Amino acid sequence: xxxxxxxxxxxxxxxxxxxxxxxxxxxxxxxxxxxxxxxxxxxxxxxxxxxxxxxxxxxxxxxxxxxxxxxxxxxxxxxxxxxxxxxxxxxxxxxxxxxxxxxxxxxxxxxxxxxxxxxxxxxxxxxxxxxxxxxxxxxxxxxxxxxxxxxxxxxxxxxxxxxxxxxxxxxxxxxxxxxxxxxxxxxxxxxxxxxxxxxxxxxxxxxxxxxxxxxx
Length: 216
Known about the structure:
Elements: E1 6-10, H1 21-30, H2 32-41, H3 43-50, H4 56-68, H5 73-86, H6 94-105, E2 109-117, H7 118-128, E3 132-136, E4 138-140, E5 146-150, H8 158-168, E6 175-180, H9 186-191, E7 194-197
Parallel strand pairs: 1-2, 1-6, 2-3, 6-7
Antiparallel strand pairs: 4-5
Helix pairs in contact: 1-2, 2-4, 3-4, 5-7
């Protein structure tokens, strides 16, 4: 029986997948030479982000602008479909997909919260039963060409919590599970009743889902 009062929020890269899916997607789409050239063009922003002098989202947008600028939405959506069919399945962690299925079997609402683009995450997530995808979204101009910026802030760190709270609006979950693997998931984990970060212990049992641990 569905229990919509329990929400399970999953990060994607490093949590459901074994690696950074965006890098793999870009390299598959444009090829290694252009991937490397784009990284070199965006290196002032990428280095600045590594030194915490530049916002991560700004650096990511600079890189995607270097490799994708002017590419049409239709082209990118076709590239995303190709990626979903031919490469993404090999990046997924079977044990985490099993965890997604466990939550679904218990009737929990499941949501994907990721800094990677909804361009390929949204159709993939729909195919495995996620109710919603909260992700980084590319911005397109009136001719439907990528303009090298994001439609919303990069979905990382505090932005993940803002997106979650906007998604559930007044329907605050009774229990929130959060799954992540990195600093970008810290705030989401802190917001959750039950949080799991890869490398920090075993997955929590779901039998205690009716017992929130967060202080009220």
